[in-house]
Amino acid sequence: MITTQKILDGKFELEMHTYGSGGEPLLFLHGAGGSLPSEPFLEELGHDFKIFAPHFPGYGESTGTEHIDDIEDAALFVHQVMDELKIPSANILGHSMGGMLAAEVAALDVHRAKKLILAAPAGFWLDAHPIPDFFAAQLDEIAGLLFHDPNSPAAKMMTAIPEDFKALEVMYVERVKRLATASKFLWPIPDRGLRKRAYRIQSPTLILWGESDRLIPPVYANEFTKLIKGSKLETIKQAGHMLMYEQQGAFVKAVRDFLKR
């Protein structure tokens, strides 16, 4: 189901996707590329949880990005969304940029995230293992950065370049809009000081990483497990940065097992 939520008396309008009708609330925070109109892995998780998957301002039909300047604004915005949805505490799942944001939300208020799942999260920078500049990548380079198999059906579907000029123009405009928002948190490097705040995270935390991630190398997983006390790492084989699409079954099982434990 898709609804529009007015946040802070209409300062923001949020395109909200929900999955499932019962179970504990699970908040999903998407990555820099945004969300698909329908997310199969969330549909599957919706059998067990009530899932809230907002499009962040600047994505889809969500508005108000001009009111968010930095990662602190973004984290406070998520807290406000949860307040207005009357969700004092929830399991939070974040992917890539959304993982970075989920970690900041959990660090800001240690009671907000019941359990935390970070899927290939951004948030750190290692000089010895630089992260490729996603903002400078050409369209035909993106699949190789994001997927274990850039020729897989999922990769081709998500990174196809339209042949129709009008469709290509629309795609470029949407991409520019999304990356303009993401750049506030990820450019020139995806590090906004999370390293200084990660010690505050008290939620049981699962870190998921694709073994073949070429965008944020798996070595970054060690930084998260080192800095988030008691966190657990699970690596998914034959998966790149978009692990929930390439290995949906393994991804959903890992999330479900962790949350049901």
Question: How is this structure best described in words?
Answer:
- The protein has 261 residues and is α/β, with parallel strands linked by helices.
- It has one domain: Rossmann fold.
- 37% of the residues lie in helices and 18% in strands.
- The protein is built from ten helices and eight strands.
- Strands 1-2-4-3-5-6-7-8 form an eight-stranded mixed sheet, sandwiched between helices.
- Strand 7, helix 8 and strand 8 form a beta-alpha-beta unit.
- The model has no long low-confidence stretch (mean pLDDT 95).
Please summarize what this structure is.
The chain has 261 residues and is of the alpha/beta class. The chain has ten helices and eight strands.
How are the elements arranged and paired?
Blueprint: E1 2-7, E2 12-19, E3 25-29, H1 40-45, E4 50-54, H2 71-84, E5 90-95, H3 97-108, E6 113-119, H4 142-146, H5 153-159, H6 165-186, H7 194-197, E7 205-210, H8 219-227, E8 232-236, H9 243-246, H10 248-260
Helix pairs in contact: 2-3
Order of helices and strands: EEEHEHEHEHHHHEHEHH
Number of domains: 1
The CATH H-level homologous superfamily: Alpha/Beta hydrolase fold, catalytic domain
Low-confidence stretches: none
Portion of residues in beta strands equals 15-25%
Q: Per CATH, what is the topology?
A: Rossmann fold
Indicate the mean pLDDT. Answer: 95
**Proper CATH architecture:** 3-Layer(aba) Sandwich
Biggest beta sheet attributes: 8 strands, mixed
Question: What is the count of DSSP helices, taking H or I runs of 4+ residues?
Answer: 10
Class based on secondary structure composition and strand pairing: alpha/beta
Number of strands: 8
Estimated radius of gyration: 17 Å
Shape: globular
